[in-house]
Design brief:
8 strands; alpha/beta; TIM Barrel; 7 helices; about 250 residues; single chain; globular
Amino acid sequence: MFVAASSRCFPNLTIKESLSKLADLEYTAAELVVGKNPEYQLILPESQKQFEDIVQFCRMSRRITPIAIYFDYEPEDVDFLRNFECCAFMAKAAKIIQITVKSSEIGTPFNAEVERLRQLTKIGNTHGLVIGVATETGRMSEDPDSLKSICKTVRDLSITLDPSHYIYSHSKPKEYDHLLEYVSHVRLRDTTKEKLQVQIGQGIQEYGRLVIQLSKTNYRRALCVDLAPLPDLDQEAELRKMRLLLESLL
C-alpha cells in the first residue's frame, strides 16, 4: 500500500498548482479528478490536450505520479458514456489503470445499473483498465450488501472504498468487511455520523483497523487522501497530518 492524494484537495488552484502543492507536502502519487464542475479544471472532452500536458508535467517533475482518475460525472448525464470513453482513452495513454465512477441514485432498477456497469467494464477491459464504483451515501453503493450483489453480477467490476460513507448519516457504522475482496482503490478522510468530514483526529474513522483488513486481502494499491478545505483549518497542515498518520500504519 502507498499514500496518495486527490487533486481536488486544493479546489481553488489549477491542477498543476494543486499537484505541485501536494508534492511539496511529500505526496508522491495523486488521483486526478475529471468532472463537469469548473473547479476540477479537467472537463471532457475539451480537456484532452490539457490532460496530456498535466501527465507530462508530472513525468518531468518526477515528484508526483498520477495513479488514478475519479470520473465525477453523473450516470444520468446524456454525454456520460461519450466522456467516459474519452477518459478511458486518456487513461490508457497515460498508463493510469484505475478509474472510479459513481453508482446510480437509489431507486434505479438493479438490472439497469448492472447493464450500465457492464458497459463501463467492457470499455475498461478494452483499454486494460480497472473500473471501480465508489461507495457513496444516497446512491446504490451505500448499501454494502447490494453493492456486493452488483460486483458478483458484473464481471471485473471493482470497488473504490470510501468508508466515510458507511459512517456518515448512519446511526452506527455499516460493516463492509465482505466488500474488501473487491476493493481496487481507497479514498479517506476523518468522519462522524453527523459530518462527512471533520478535522483529522476528531472523527471515528479506524484507519489502523482498515489497513489491517486490507492487508489480509493483499491490497497493494493507494490509500488516497480526499480532504475538502474546512473553515478555519490549515489545509496544508491537515494534509500533512493525514499523510504522516497513514504512513505510520504501513
